Amino acid sequence: MSFISAENVSFSYSEANKNVLDDFSLKIEKGEFVALLGHNGCGKSTVAKLLNAMLLPNDGVVYVEGMNTADEELTYDIRSNIGLVLQNPDNQLVASIIEEDVAFGPENLGIEPEEIRKRVDESLKAVGMYEYRTHAPHKLSGGQKQRVAIAGILAMRPSCIVFDEPTAMLDPSGREEVMSAIQSLKEQGITIVLITHYMNEAVLADRVIVMDGGKVLIEGTPREVFSEVPLLKRHSLDVPQATELAYRLIGAGVRFTKMPLNAEECVEFLEGVLK
Amino acid sequence: MSLIEVKNLSFTYGIGTPFEKKAVDDLSLSINEGEIIGLIGHTGSGKSTFVQTLNGLIKPTEGQVLLEGKDIWEKPKEIRKVRFKVGMVFQYPEYQLFDETVYKDISFGPANKGLSGDDLDKTVRRAARFVSLNDRLLDKSPFDLSGGEKRRAAIAGVIAMDPDVLVLDEPTAGLDPKGRDLLLSQIIGYHRERKNTIILVSHSMEDVARVADRIMVMNRGKLEMLDTPRAVFSRVEELERMGLRVPQITRVMTILREKGYDFSDGILTVGQAFDEVLSLLKKEGKL
Amino acid sequence: MIRDVSFGQFMPGKSVIHRLDPRIKIVLLIAYIVFVFCTFNFVSLAIVSAATIAVILLSGIPFRMYVKSLKVVIIIVLITSLLNIFYGGGDPIFEWGIIKISLSGIYRAIFVSVRIVLLILLSSCLTFTTTPTDLTDAIERLMKPLKVLHVKVHEIAMMMTIALRFVPTLLEETDKIMSAQKARGADMESGGFIKKIKAMTPVLIPLFVSAFRRAYELAVAMECRCYRGGDGRTRMKTLHMKPLDYVSVILSCLLLTGIILCNIFLAPII
What we know:
Order of helices and strands of chain C: HHHHHEEHHHHHH
Structural class of chain C: mainly alpha
Number of domains of chain C: 2
Strand content of chain A: 15-25%
Distance between the termini of chain C: 39 Å
Shape of chain C: flat
Radius of gyration of chain A: 20 Å
Low-confidence stretches of chain C: 1-7
CATH superfamily of chain A: P-loop containing nucleotide triphosphate hydrolases
Distance between the termini of chain A: 49 Å
Strand order of the largest sheet of chain A: 6-7-8-3-9-10
Number of domains of chain A: 1
Oligomer: heterotrimer
């Protein structure tokens, strides 16, 4: 069985509303980095909350390491195993001192004080915020706050972290800080689910899933997915500029070798074409 | 004649406290009527402070802001009048919505300006049209709108004051690509019809490159560049040293130029790059 | 600006006062407040003032921070001391029309203003040297016995923690919304009281809406971090009484003895 598996899930927020998710299935393996794309209202955030038992499916089942999220006795095991980082960094921090905020999760889990201390220090170091441990959150930049929020999740020792548009409210340098933190978590073997609008972030994933109208539109490696430029454009999604240029050149009759996803690959691509 | 003239403007926060910080440092420039200025800079570069001096929300500690040749602080009691001429849309403007209906909320600004009756109705509906809010939405509570609609309603609230200068601080922040494209095209449409001056503050070089006539770059409170997008984006290295990222396509074309390929400087859009590559390919007979 | 108010702001440091157990600090603050109001003659007032100055010096917080927090109450101090001077009763030493000033009135004014100042200085010292979380934590622990009376001690403490966390955020937000409405021509400075209250509607409504939105999002975030009330919850920081804490208690007892002796052997002035 997969690490996380959602099987034929349907979900609506109330009976009067139409389904946000419709017969949606998803499998995620341990250690994978999956990016979830789609415009607002396509059901991405609902998926995030279904994975950590914040929401329960109307139909279908969600399993996390074999645990059914609908089993109330397992709710907290699931939530500590599948961390969720939300969009607005301000509204995720509970305490007025960074280290005490990071301790909040493990404290809720009833962990021994010395162990909490150890986890807090480790988590803050993992996101590069250890020097700020005694600071107040409101004096930090957006990117720093979001890294503290990540540390707060990390301190629960989850095997997977779901990020729901973690960079949407940040400036470009904040975005870079958070993305490099996410990548280093991935290297430590933590499974990553990243919900984002930014294609430059999605290209870093092992697998990209594009959602539309509560269903999976396409999925595959970033290269496979972003090669579908017309499909993505039709659904008002961006493609990286590098990919778009290559796509248009191919349309004009240029023969291509490998679809570029970032600036470096695009330079390579163009050099190949121009040689 | 230039519409806005800024002379040796400085602003220091918290004078005499340990948090004293010079946010804007001896800045001079002039902005012409009818142009779109893109203002870019790293967080903390002073851009938000600078734009708030333009409508008198922040009083400069030194220097002057001249609007149509007159110092806006000449009569401090009449500073409110300046705010109707220089409209300001803040970041996440949807958080300022407050009235019972969208219609009433949009009319807040123009009513403060003194409009009433038919004039008020006309200006509210016109502003709503610019951001494609239909009549059905106008009678709804602003809190029942979707995220993108709220943003547009809030922008309409400023447009309705019919300002000669419209300042937009990160208008597309937090929107999805669809919402962003829609909003940008509405701003351009509004500009074409109203022909007023627009100052667009943004982190997104792609957005700025798409709409601006001139780009202004701020760093540590100082004005570093004010030039055409092409000229600004041809200075990739300097921009990156200020912590700014040029559009991906600009980076690609700059690297290739440095490698000796004959491309023009400061390419900003995929379209331009496409044309350049294609004409080079044709010239060399490779296509 | 509202944000300039320094009263109640934690200032990091490593002083003796910083290192005291927050529970002890709260208990001692309450004790000192009682001491301050038990001063009936200049000697005891001087003793308490000296103790306060000692505490302030030990705290290592720049003196101007204390001055700043006094600014908030300066008007209250002035009004109460004026009232005491003019309505102090006793034999007038100065008369002009209806104004009668007596020696006891002046004494009373001095005592009242010094007491208020000491009160503010001591409580500022507590909030300057104790993190808000330590404070709420200490209050939670001190109030624990009240659980028997079904007082929701943990919930109250959690509410205080969250309130403290969001005060700066909401102040900043108020500033932003005010600027945004001013940019739309809102006139918040002119007009009478009623007009000013009315003019605040465009600020207050968005502020409430935003506070509710934040509260909702925070609740979600807290649930995601396995929050389920106080039962079974542990704390990273445990509080233990250290030698320093015992020393502070002993010193305070000495102070109390001094004041009691003063009150027994010296005649009260007020």
